[in-house]
Amino acid sequence: MSGNVSIVIVSHSAKVAEGAADMVRQMVGDEVRVAFCGGDPDGGLGTDVAAIVAAIDSVWSDSGVAVLVDLGGAETNSEMAIEMLGEGRAARVAICNAPVVEGAVMAATEAAGGADLDTVRATAEEFQA
Amino acid sequence: MTDADLIAAMIARAEAAIAAHAEELTALDQAVGDGDHGLNMARGFKALAEAAPEIVALPFGAALQKAGMTLVMKVGGASGPLYGSALMAMGKAATNAPRDAASAAALLAAGIAAIKARGKSDVGAKTMLDALAPVEAALAAGGGAAEARAAAAAGLEATRAMRATKGRAAFLGERSIGHLDPGARSSALLVDVVCDVAEGL
């Protein structure tokens, strides 16, 4: 489906990811679809490639998907998950180099205005400046 | 030994070695990281052992790729995509198991290149690459299992004095110095497993 850029939040902690997603929804309601995942394949702290792929799929937008990650393994696992989408879809997914909570809210607010993926990503990343 | 026997032996021994050293890996990771390396690796290699019957039925290259994908999906930390990408790249690079030092070096080189790309890292950053790159060099110079083990052990020990610039350990900065890198330790364990099987121990 086309429409606004979607947001995916990936944290080592399911609670952090869910909480960040709640904050995004408070800002943008239903205008931007947001998915979250956190926890390793056994439910401990960590990230899970299959869950990241599923999260991206669940909010897929042809306009793009902005992914916010917390620490090291979340980024590596998200890069792996994006590669597994195949080249065509992978090109429409961007990991934002931004703090996960603030970045997600900034990205979603930008996406709600209909901005393209590059703009959404840049807005999230500008937050660090 | 057929390629299937080799892979079966390596998976069984790797699972046992990682399980036996899981607490040690976790302790090393608690010093410089988030303390999950032992648990993550044990989970990944247990899944690998469970998938072994399916994996060994495949030709060598496809078997390595499936083994890599299993680690990617099951480890749950950055080491999953790192080791997994290495195995997948090695699987694409080879159709048969290497039977001499030069082809083993070439196969390992493909794995190391994948780890560098996936981790955006290189030798000297206190990572698994510091244990693996010396092994490639030893094999490329014509060394056998003994030289490969020694190279991994020396490479692992060299990580103690290094300052981490990658992964969670980078947050510690100077305080990462003085600790062995957990990823280099797990890599050295896996090098030992491969050498055990290659030597028919």
Q: In the residues of chain B, how many domains can be counted?
A: 1
Structural class of chain A: alpha/beta
* Neighbour order of strands in the largest sheet of chain A: 2-1-3-4
The number of helices of chain B is 9
* CATH domain class name of chain B: Mainly Alpha
Mean pLDDT across all amino acids of chain B:
96
Helix content of chain A: 40-55%
User: Could you report the average pLDDT of chain A, rounded to the nearest whole number?
Assistant: 94
Radius of gyration of chain A: 13 Å
Number of strands of chain B: 0
Number of strands of chain A: 4
Tell me about the biggest sheet of chain A?
4 strands, parallel
Helicity of chain B, as a percent range: over 70%
The SS-based structural class of chain B is: mainly alpha
According to CATH, the fold-level topology of chain B is Serine Threonine Protein Phosphatase 5, Tetratricopeptide repeat
Chain-wise SSE layout:
The complex is a heterodimer of chains A (129) and B (201).
Chain A: E1 6-11, H1 14-28, E2 34-38, H2 49-58, E3 65-69, H3 72-84, H4 87-90, E4 93-96, H5 100-112, H6 117-126
Helix pairs in contact in A: 1-5, 2-3, 5-6
Chain B: H1 3-20, H2 22-32, H3 37-56, H4 60-74, H5 79-93, H6 101-119, H7 129-140, H8 145-158, H9 182-198
Describe the protein in words.
The complex is a heterodimer of chains A (129) and B (201). By secondary structure, chain A is an alpha/beta fold. Chain A has helices spanning 14-28, 49-58, 72-84, 87-90, 100-112, 117-126; strands at 6-11, 34-38, 65-69, 93-96. In chain A, strands 2-1-3-4 form a four-stranded parallel beta sheet, sandwiched between helices. In chain A, helix 1 (14-28) runs parallel beside helix 5 (100-112) and helix 5 packs across helix 6. Chain A is globular, with a radius of gyration of 13 Å. The model of chain A has no long low-confidence stretch (mean pLDDT 94). The A-B interface holds A 12, 40-42, 44-50, 71-73, 75-77, 79-80 and B 34, 36, 39-40, 43, 72-74, 76-82, 84-85, 118-119, 166-168.
